[in-house]
Design goal:
This protein is α+β, with helices and mostly antiparallel strands. The chain has 2 domains: 133 residues, 2-Layer Sandwich (Phosphorylase Kinase, domain 1); 196 residues, Alpha-Beta Complex (Aminoglycoside 3'-phosphotransferase, Chain: A, domain 2), CATH 3.90.1200. It has a 5-stranded antiparallel beta sheet, sandwiched between helices. Strands 6-9-10 form a 3-stranded antiparallel beta sheet, with helices on one face. 40% of the residues are buried.
């Protein structure tokens, strides 16, 4: 999934000016890029005197993603400049067992949900499908002064993000039933069960883990109704600290291709994954206050605990080579703690 971190952006314009016309194979030629950006920016309400913009800089984004991307700097006739993130997705990309919807899905999230929601998110400038390559382009705002929330204080970053997502969930508790959101995927029992089943399969060669992980995965079946038999809202789906930026004191979540209809506690669990219990408690308090004020529904704490367990299964049940890697041992520790808290170990 794409993550944006602009710590090095001040020097990238000079670097990228040298690279105009020298593009990787997945990136369009300068003529096509200029034509598409001129059309889409014009459709987005930008006044283009001569009908087009000039691309003065471009560089591939260095951050990992399910789709390659680049940062493009456009200049208007009056001298204004605009930085755009151009994300190029394939029509049939890896879906992460149904977790990721791809660029086409993310485009619909921006069009149908985010541009009308009144929340701080990157501006949406348009989309285009290249008939030659078949790639779908997503054109959104590049937040030039933003940083990941891990690079600022917990107060400005982590806790503000908990409040942001609580407000987002509150605003969308009923909206997900509207026609404009009918395309959103929903998490059902089969979705949750799949992550547990794959985790159990992947750990069979790990003798230190399989003895307790496989029974835990089987017992996770008992906990699934905690997440499915509850009022739903619209969730980001991968609300990790890598996908949440802060700029000028505002929170900007990015990478919306995992958006879904599900229990809101899942986003809170993703946000606090790997943080101290003290930080988790503070985030939960901020979330409850913003989303429900004093009317916190029963079962919130249990849903959060089950969500925290699921987050570990989500990462461990994706690809076997990642599950068996040495650098994920800490996830097994988190999984065990979550299982013990819930009494399934």
């Amino acid at each position: 999934m794409i993550t944006l971190d602009n710590a090095n952006l001040p020097k990238t314009k000079m670097e990228s000016k040298k690279s105009v016309g020298q593009t990787p194979s997945w990136s369009p030629d300068i003529e096509t890029l200029t034509r598409v950006l001129s059309t889409e920016l014009g459709n987005s309400g930008f006044h283009l005197k001569n009908g087009k913009v000039t691309v003065i800089a471009r560089r591939p984004s260095i951050y990992s993603s399910t789709a390659p991307s680049e940062v493009v700097t456009c200049r208007f006739e009056d001298g204004r400049e605009l930085n755009i993130l151009c994300k190029y997705g394939k029509a049939h990309a890896y879906s992460g067992h149904g977790h990721w919807g791809g660029v086409t899905y993310e485009k619909r999230v921006y069009q149908n949900l985010l541009t009308r929601g009144g929340f701080s998110t990157p501006a949406y400038y348009g989309e285009y499908q290249d008939p030659a390559s078949g790639r779908i382009w997503l054109l959104i705002e590049w937040l030039a002064q933003s940083v990941r929330i891990k690079k600022v204080s917990e107060e400005e970053g982590l806790f503000s993000a908990a409040k942001w997502i609580g407000d987002f969930h509150r605003a969308n508790e009923q909206r997900w039933t509207n026609d404009e959101c009918s395309f959103l995927k929903s998490y059902d029992a089969g979705y949750y069960r799949g992550w547990a089943d794959r985790t159990a399969l992947f750990v069979r060669g790990l003798h230190d883990q399989s003895s307790w992980v496989e029974p835990l995965c089987r017992r996770f079946e008992e906990l699934i109704p905690v997440l499915t038999d509850t009022p739903f809202t619209i969730i980001h789906g991968e609300f990790t600290t890598a996908n949440v930026l802060v700029q000028n004191g505002l929170i900007y979540p990015v990478d919306w291709e995992s958006t879904a209809v599900a229990a809101g506690e899942l986003d809170l669990a993703f946000l606090t994954d790997g943080w101290s219990e003290k930080a988790v408690e503070r985030c939960a308090a901020e979330y409850r206050r913003v989303r429900w004020s004093e009317r916190v529904p029963s079962g919130f704490e249990r849903r959060l605990q089950v969500s925290r367990l699921f987050v570990q299964l989500r990462w461990l049940g994706d690809r076997e080579e990642r599950t068996t890697a040495e650098n994920v041992s800490w996830r097994f520790k988190e999984l065990k703690k979550a299982g013990e808290r819930l009494g399934v170990i």
